[in-house]
Amino acid sequence: DAKTTQPPSMDCAEGRAANLPCNHSTISGNEYVYWYRQIHSQGPQYIIHGLKNNETNEMASLIITEDRKSSTLILPHATLRDTAVYYCIVRAGGRSGGSNYKLTFGKGTLLTVNP
Amino acid sequence: EAGVVQSPRYKIIEKKQPVAFWCNPISGHNTLYWYRQNLGQGPELLIRYENEEAVDDSQLPKDRFSAERLKGVDSTLKIQPAELGDSAVYLCASSDDSSGYTFGSGTRLTVV
Asked: In the prediction, which pLDDT does B68 show?
């Protein structure tokens, strides 16, 4: 799986949009971009994933550049509960991934939402 | 739905003692994973099961770690004997082909 690079930490004001960047310059054509987050003392939680088109769900939006070498996770209206470590992961296959569904985590970005 | 259930939530043991962690995956999920998360790091895969078969245990330290998933449902991860460096959070996750990954809350192990 391709390697990802994320800033170690970011701050965001409550109610504002949080934009979390991720670089994945060695991504292959069949690799998806996944985002998970981990709130303190909990297991990682799936947020969103995409291949090349922008994606949106009830939690967030995912913007992938045209060359697919970087992406941005957007939390449109951050709340205090969004304070967590956010992981950007690149791997082959869709959400289910079949029998090779291994997630390789980096250190992620600690997002702190301030009141 | 209860999600992935792990127990105990916390465990403190002396080095050289054995310890076991238990995981109950989401009903119907045929794939089960054990991850270890050291402080300040992301989780790392230890072992993956497809039903009752361990299909990827390449990262499991087999000299002291063992795991089993009898009947393809619940799973147990054991360490014997524990070392100071085993202090970490042990996460269990399960998935199937339609719903993707769900993690449990983990067991925080402290070896003193």
From this structure: 96
